[in-house]
Amino acid sequence: LLYTIKFEGIMMYAESPEWSDIVPIPLPHNDKDPVVQIMYSDRFKDVYSYMAAIMEKKEYSHRALLLTNDAIECNTANYTVWHYRREILRHLKMDLKEEMEFSASVIEEQPKNYQVWHHRRCLIEMSGDHSLELELTAESLSQDNKNYHAWDHRQWVVQQYNVWDKELEYVDELLALDLRNNSAWNHRYFVIENSEGWSSETVARELEYAASFIRKAPNNESPWNYANGIIKKNKLRYSDFPKLKELCTSLYESHVPSNFVLSTLADIHIEAENKEAAMEIFEEMKEKDSIRVNYWTFRLQQLQGS
Amino acid sequence: SGSFQCASFGTESDARFVYCASCISYMLQDWRGVDRSLATQFLLSCQSYEGGFGQNTGREAHGGSTFCSVAALKLMGTFDEVMCEERRQRVLSWCLRRQETGFNGRPNKPKDTCYSFWVGSCLKLLGGQDFINKEGNFAFLMTTQVRHVVQVMILLPS
Questions:
Q1: In chain A, which residue's Cα lies nearest the Cα of B6?
Q2: Residue of B108, B123, B116 lying closest to B145 (CA atoms)
Q3: In terms of CA atoms, which chain A residue is nearest residue B53?
Q4: pLDDT reported for residue B149
Q5: Which terminus of chain B, N or C, has less C-beta within 10 A?
């Protein structure tokens, strides 16, 4: 039985006959007179005084594994306990299937905990079995579609095990649900960068992909960062992709209020060495994007001086 | 890879700990624990297409990791050497776009007071502090301050 059964009252390790051989090491462990004393609960002190004793003794047993369940519940961020738990699993040569379920349940309860995600990564590295991860991360992302840990884990799995083929479709699904999901846009860039690469056909296709979302919501920063990012990161020239300028110009002429239209147009003009046109836009941005007035003033002065 | 974990037995590795290692080494004026060249290359690889920095290569640009990366490069003394004008402009403008009144940490995410620190400090390191709208930032921060005394009742079992 891997998991503790919860009684109505909590079992104190100090009162358990199964643990009578262990001398607990009381909290705090390192300091007789701590400057800032944490108000540990009785339960916390009980669990961790036994955890400390077991780790001191280097006992890697089944009861020690159950103890780490309690220690993790008391403080899920204690990475020393998580590491010790992995050592127990290793020593006991345990089948990791139940451990994968355990990690999934902790992820469900605490999806922003660093240690459990790292633990899961270690389990996958131990077993080589990454078959559940796309579903796990998709489930986590269905509850919080920008969870940084979930995206990190998904990207690690996809890259480590070369499982790129479903990812663009997954991004499509997420953007259909929320075209402002910046994490999904980032994932798209990551996938293409590491699978098909940025050939001129791919660049053209992806710029059009971004454009289609820009038309739906011209003030959405994400596809603008994506389009401009493709050009800049790959040291391309706006002049090689005239459709982007056409899009900006048509949105500008339709008086669509978007600071991204303006700033992209300005960058296009600067590349084309059309200083006057860029300066006019910066002048306009001082009013239209007034939060950043000092920055647009600076950009304007930069051009005036050059 | 150039990145850092936070414990010797093996933990996750990312820009946060590169920053921590840089702070410690800087304070001690002892860089024997950090391969600055490798760490610098790692951090540069974290600058995404957006211009900000993610926690790892390929990860989404984020206000926290952008601060960690820029600050670490400054502490290591490699910032000027590797952050060419183009890279600097890209991170600067990404940071400036985080401001609405307060700052968010990623595009299309809500603002949070912590990013006034992460992004605000980063902008100072980049020399862009005058581009911040100080009134907007201050006004937002003031809305988050609890100004009334909270009365708490503790019920003890009899």
A1: A79
A2: B116
A3: A186
A4: 76
A5: C
